[in-house]
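The pair is listed for reference:
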Amino acid sequence: MPRAGSAFEELPSDSVLIVGGGPVGLILALTLAHHGVRSVLVERNLTTTRWPKMDLTIARSMEIFRVLGIADGLRERGVPSHYPFTCLFSSGLNAEKALTSWELPSVDEFRSHIGSCNDGTVPLEPWQRISQEVFEAWLKDLGDQNPLIDIRFGWTAVSAKELDGGAEVVIVGTTKGVEKIIRGKYAVGCDGANSVLRKNLGIEMEGGPIPAYALLIHFKSKDLSRIHKQGQFWHIFFPNTASEGGSVKGAIIAQDEIDTWTVHQFLPAGFDHSQISSEGAVYNVLGGMGDPYPIKIDEILVRSTWTPNVAVAKNYSGPQQRILLAGDACHQTVPTGGYGMNMGIAEAFDLGWKLAAVINGWGGPKLLSTYEEERRPVACLSLQWSKGHMGKLMALSTILGLEADIINSADEKGQEMRSAIHQYAQKNDGHNKSIGVEMGYRYDSRICVPGEVDHESTPPAFDSRRYTPTTYPGYRAPHVFLKDGTPIFDKYSKEFTLIDFNDVQESPATTYICNASKKYNIPLEVVPLTGEHHANKIWETNLVLIRPDGFVSWHGNTIEDQISADWILSKAAGYGDEEVLGMRIK
């Protein structure tokens, strides 16, 4: 309950309250601003994170950032584009060379592949390495500069509840303890795994912690000759010996290819990590199965522990859909695959356009309910694959029976063990090659409108390793370069876009859909692409209706009449059958 005499603030009806100023909350604010909607963002910390956390922005997230106009700025601050994403497996840096590796392409190599593969199977943007410490600070600067975003650090949410027609959140000043009540039409909890908003809504999590934990040491070192003894890397994984319990002893991550690194040492549940110094943890991990491997450490930046957790919220909003959740507030996962923060970015982008549509007056009454309908299954999918990646990595030592006295020996047993590690690692290399998990999923909700062409067809089968280009409703539309080299994605408007491949100046279908747009005040732009036969072949049909997030609402070769156009567009905007019928009568 709020204290007596607490300050009170009523937000304007065109504003959204965001609780949590990490990447998800900041991207949500930027997405709302992209659609002309104001937000107030409160964050309990006084500054952005000092923790490295996520260091991979996947290709789909980079596509989202391109839409928001921030992709190039992020790359300027990230790891330079020529560095590959090499992951090594090592018995320890005392050994002369690594056991095996995953050779993952640099941004430059990825971009070259995209330019030479114009078949719809690849993303428009390559991935990017950037530490969350750098990323988050930059996002806050962008928010501070945006006139539609009001960022307030140093305020902790202590309670929240839905009201009739709105939401109320009680916040307390981090330094002076001043309490304030903020009310608005909508509030979004981007407040992390221990979300106050989720707990106040009584929403339970399905899943939970894995019985282990890790000690994290974030540090600076320019001792590159010793750190890079086995070659340049993004990650090095150090398996444990089977006799010591198997699993993985730890890993090191290169944050910037200059002097900033993060070591994770995995420890048994219940182990007192205070017995290990920060420097000792680094040396132990880098030594792998052998003796500790000392390096010159210039500065310890952060020391913490974390427990692997795999869980998803049963609901993504309160019953009145006035308080919604995004990011770690509604799901937690292990780092393998890099899905955690990237899931949150996709949620912020999805929720952002839907909230903006409702606030701007054209989103239907069913639109916000599709946020959970669409995004929760994606979280479940990502958690399943992330946990699977982690399981295969942790099982390597036990399955192969790794032992320190054999692994580096020159005899036949050593060669056989090293060969077995190589084969196992290459067979189980899906951590950063599961593009189907990242962008090949399908939304199945009421705003995905089946067309006539779908009556006798089925959506593509899911393949974790492949994105199958399709414009079946509910999928991300395929990237393709047009004849002049322009990406088709760059033709989209901010709201709905009808891509028209018909070889006529203005087809009846476009007239019908434009009439529907004007009649129901649903913003839409028609993009004629006459003569773009290659793109048309990949996109399958002559007409494709694209949502503000780049996913397909509807596709077909024609729209028979005005009633059909009204139905397609109003359903895509979140109106139910009864509302569509009522709109027709009016």
